[in-house]
Protein backbone atom coordinates (compact mmCIF):
# COMPACT_ATOMS: atom_id res chain seq x y z
CA UNK A 1 0.00 0.00 0.00
CA UNK A 2 1.26 3.49 -0.89
CA UNK A 3 1.51 6.01 1.94
CA UNK A 4 -0.76 9.03 1.15
CA UNK A 5 -0.04 11.18 4.17
CA UNK A 6 1.78 14.50 4.28
CA UNK A 7 4.07 14.59 7.24
CA UNK A 8 4.31 17.86 9.21
CA UNK A 9 8.00 18.12 8.39
CA UNK A 10 7.13 18.31 4.64
CA UNK A 11 4.13 20.67 4.72
CA UNK A 12 6.32 23.77 4.61
CA UNK A 13 7.51 22.82 1.13
CA UNK A 14 3.94 23.06 -0.23
CA UNK A 15 2.87 26.31 -1.88
CA UNK A 16 -0.64 25.78 -0.51
CA UNK A 17 0.72 25.85 3.02
CA UNK A 18 2.69 29.02 2.28
CA UNK A 19 -0.44 30.66 0.85
CA UNK A 20 -2.43 29.73 3.96
CA UNK A 21 0.35 30.74 6.33
CA UNK A 22 0.80 34.16 4.72
CA UNK A 23 -2.91 34.84 4.00
CA UNK A 24 -2.28 35.07 0.24
CA UNK A 25 -5.84 33.92 -0.38
CA UNK A 26 -7.28 36.94 1.48
CA UNK A 27 -4.56 39.59 1.04
CA UNK A 28 -3.27 40.12 -2.49
CA UNK A 29 -0.72 42.60 -1.07
CA UNK A 30 1.02 40.12 1.23
CA UNK A 31 4.15 39.93 -0.96
CA UNK A 32 3.74 43.35 -2.55
CA UNK A 33 6.01 46.38 -2.17
CA UNK A 34 2.75 48.35 -1.95
CA UNK A 35 1.62 46.50 1.19
CA UNK A 36 2.76 49.35 3.43
CA UNK A 37 0.17 51.63 1.78
CA UNK A 38 -2.58 49.05 2.13
CA UNK A 39 -1.98 48.90 5.88
CA UNK A 40 -1.96 52.68 6.52
CA UNK A 41 -4.82 54.62 8.06
CA UNK A 42 -7.02 56.43 5.53
CA UNK A 43 -5.66 59.85 6.42
CA UNK A 44 -2.04 58.79 6.20
CA UNK A 45 -2.70 56.85 3.00
CA UNK A 46 -4.24 59.97 1.44
CA UNK A 47 -1.17 62.02 2.30
CA UNK A 48 1.18 59.52 0.66
CA UNK A 49 -1.08 59.08 -2.38
CA UNK A 50 -0.96 62.87 -2.91
CA UNK A 51 2.82 62.86 -2.60
CA UNK A 52 3.19 59.84 -4.90
CA UNK A 53 1.06 61.44 -7.62
CA UNK A 54 2.96 64.72 -7.25
CA UNK A 55 6.35 63.06 -7.50
CA UNK A 56 5.29 60.96 -10.48
CA UNK A 57 3.90 64.00 -12.29
CA UNK A 58 7.15 65.88 -11.63
CA UNK A 59 9.06 62.95 -13.18
CA UNK A 60 6.83 63.31 -16.24
CA UNK A 61 7.87 66.95 -16.49
CA UNK A 62 4.55 68.40 -15.31
CA UNK A 63 4.50 71.65 -13.37
CA UNK A 64 3.37 70.61 -9.86
CA UNK A 65 2.56 73.20 -7.20
CA UNK A 66 1.01 73.11 -3.76
CA UNK A 67 -2.65 74.00 -3.58
CA UNK A 68 -3.59 77.53 -2.59
CA UNK A 69 -6.91 76.30 -1.16
CA UNK A 70 -8.09 73.38 0.95
CA UNK A 71 -10.62 72.55 -1.78
CA UNK A 72 -8.02 70.59 -3.77
CA UNK A 73 -4.66 68.87 -3.30
CA UNK A 74 -2.25 70.12 -5.99
CA UNK A 75 -2.07 72.43 -8.97
CA UNK A 76 -0.70 70.43 -11.89
CA UNK A 77 0.00 72.16 -15.20
CA UNK A 78 -2.25 74.96 -14.01
CA UNK A 79 -5.21 72.66 -13.22
CA UNK A 80 -6.60 72.47 -9.69
CA UNK A 81 -6.44 68.74 -8.95
CA UNK A 82 -8.11 66.64 -6.31
CA UNK A 83 -6.27 63.34 -5.75
CA UNK A 84 -8.14 60.17 -4.80
CA UNK A 85 -6.33 56.89 -4.30
CA UNK A 86 -7.30 53.39 -3.39
CA UNK A 87 -5.81 49.97 -2.86
CA UNK A 88 -7.95 46.95 -3.65
CA UNK A 89 -10.72 46.34 -1.15
CA UNK A 90 -11.66 43.04 0.42
CA UNK A 91 -10.14 40.15 -1.45
CA UNK A 92 -9.27 42.34 -4.40
CA UNK A 93 -12.71 42.55 -5.95
CA UNK A 94 -12.81 46.35 -6.36
CA UNK A 95 -11.31 49.74 -5.61
CA UNK A 96 -13.13 52.34 -3.53
CA UNK A 97 -12.33 56.01 -4.12
CA UNK A 98 -13.88 58.03 -1.30
CA UNK A 99 -14.62 61.56 -0.14
CA UNK A 100 -15.50 62.87 -3.59
CA UNK A 101 -16.98 66.32 -3.02
CA UNK A 102 -18.30 67.94 -6.21
CA UNK A 103 -19.08 71.22 -4.38
CA UNK A 104 -15.40 71.95 -3.78
CA UNK A 105 -13.46 74.13 -6.19
CA UNK A 106 -11.22 71.98 -8.41
CA UNK A 107 -11.00 71.15 -12.11
CA UNK A 108 -9.68 67.60 -12.34
CA UNK A 109 -9.76 64.47 -10.21
CA UNK A 110 -6.75 62.20 -10.39
CA UNK A 111 -7.59 58.61 -9.49
CA UNK A 112 -4.73 56.42 -8.30
CA UNK A 113 -5.40 52.67 -8.47
CA UNK A 114 -2.77 50.82 -6.44
CA UNK A 115 -2.71 47.17 -7.47
CA UNK A 116 -0.37 44.74 -5.68
CA UNK A 117 2.04 44.87 -8.64
CA UNK A 118 1.64 48.43 -10.01
CA UNK A 119 0.08 51.87 -9.65
CA UNK A 120 -2.11 53.26 -12.38
CA UNK A 121 -3.22 56.90 -12.55
CA UNK A 122 -6.20 58.32 -14.37
CA UNK A 123 -7.67 61.77 -14.72
CA UNK A 124 -11.24 62.95 -15.05
CA UNK A 125 -12.90 66.29 -15.38
CA UNK A 126 -14.70 67.13 -12.16
CA UNK A 127 -17.98 67.78 -13.96
CA UNK A 128 -18.02 64.31 -15.54
CA UNK A 129 -17.50 62.63 -12.18
CA UNK A 130 -20.04 64.93 -10.51
CA UNK A 131 -22.65 64.10 -13.15
CA UNK A 132 -22.12 60.40 -12.44
CA UNK A 133 -22.11 60.42 -8.63
CA UNK A 134 -24.91 62.95 -8.10
CA UNK A 135 -27.53 61.20 -10.23
CA UNK A 136 -30.10 59.22 -8.27
CA UNK A 137 -31.10 55.85 -9.69
CA UNK A 138 -34.56 55.00 -11.04
CA UNK A 139 -35.81 54.45 -7.46
CA UNK A 140 -34.52 57.83 -6.28
CA UNK A 141 -31.57 56.38 -4.34
CA UNK A 142 -28.12 57.98 -4.31
CA UNK A 143 -26.05 54.92 -5.20
CA UNK A 144 -22.70 56.67 -4.58
CA UNK A 145 -23.66 58.62 -1.45
CA UNK A 146 -21.02 58.15 1.22
CA UNK A 147 -22.79 59.41 4.35
CA UNK A 148 -26.35 59.17 5.61
CA UNK A 149 -27.58 56.23 3.57
CA UNK A 150 -28.90 56.06 0.04
CA UNK A 151 -31.98 58.24 0.55
CA UNK A 152 -30.15 61.55 1.00
CA UNK A 153 -27.57 63.51 -0.95
CA UNK A 154 -24.83 64.21 1.60
CA UNK A 155 -22.60 65.99 -0.91
CA UNK A 156 -19.85 63.41 -0.34
CA UNK A 157 -19.62 60.42 -2.65
CA UNK A 158 -17.60 57.29 -3.44
CA UNK A 159 -16.91 55.12 -6.48
CA UNK A 160 -16.63 51.32 -6.30
CA UNK A 161 -15.12 49.34 -9.16
CA UNK A 162 -12.14 49.29 -11.47
CA UNK A 163 -10.94 52.13 -13.71
CA UNK A 164 -12.33 50.40 -16.80
CA UNK A 165 -15.81 50.54 -15.23
CA UNK A 166 -15.92 54.33 -15.58
CA UNK A 167 -15.85 55.95 -19.02
CA UNK A 168 -14.72 59.25 -17.50
CA UNK A 169 -11.45 57.77 -16.18
CA UNK A 170 -8.97 58.69 -18.90
CA UNK A 171 -5.20 58.69 -19.20
CA UNK A 172 -3.40 60.91 -16.72
CA UNK A 173 -2.31 63.04 -19.71
CA UNK A 174 -5.85 63.50 -21.01
CA UNK A 175 -6.92 66.26 -18.63
CA UNK A 176 -3.54 67.68 -17.64
Descriptive overview:
It is a single chain. This protein has 176 residues and is an alpha+beta fold. The chain has a domain at 34-125 and 160-175: 3-Layer(aba) Sandwich (Trna Endonuclease, Chain: A, domain 1), CATH 3.40.1350.10. The protein is 23% helix and 26% strand. It is built from five helices and eight strands. Strands 1, 2, 3, 4, 5, 6, 7 and 8 form an eight-stranded mixed β-sheet that branches. Strand 3 and strand 4 form a beta hairpin. The longest helix is centred in the N-terminal third of the chain and has 18 residues, at 42-59. It is globular. The model has no long low-confidence stretch (mean pLDDT 92).
Total of DSSP H or I helical runs spanning 4+ residues:
5
Largest sheet: 8 strands, mixed
Query: Overall pLDDT, averaged?
Result: 92
Along the chain, the helix and strand elements come as: HHHHEEEEEEHEE
Secondary-structure content class? alpha+beta
CATH architecture verdict of the domain at 34-125 and 160-175: 3-Layer(aba) Sandwich
- The dominant shape is globular
- The CATH top-level class label of the domain at 34-125 and 160-175: Alpha Beta
What CATH calls the topology of the domain at 34-125 and 160-175 is Trna Endonuclease, Chain: A, domain 1
Please tally the β strands and state the result.
8
Point out poorly predicted stretches: none
Helix content: 10-25%
Distance between the termini: 70 Å
Radius of gyration: 20 Å
What is the percentage of strand-forming residues? Answer: 25-35%
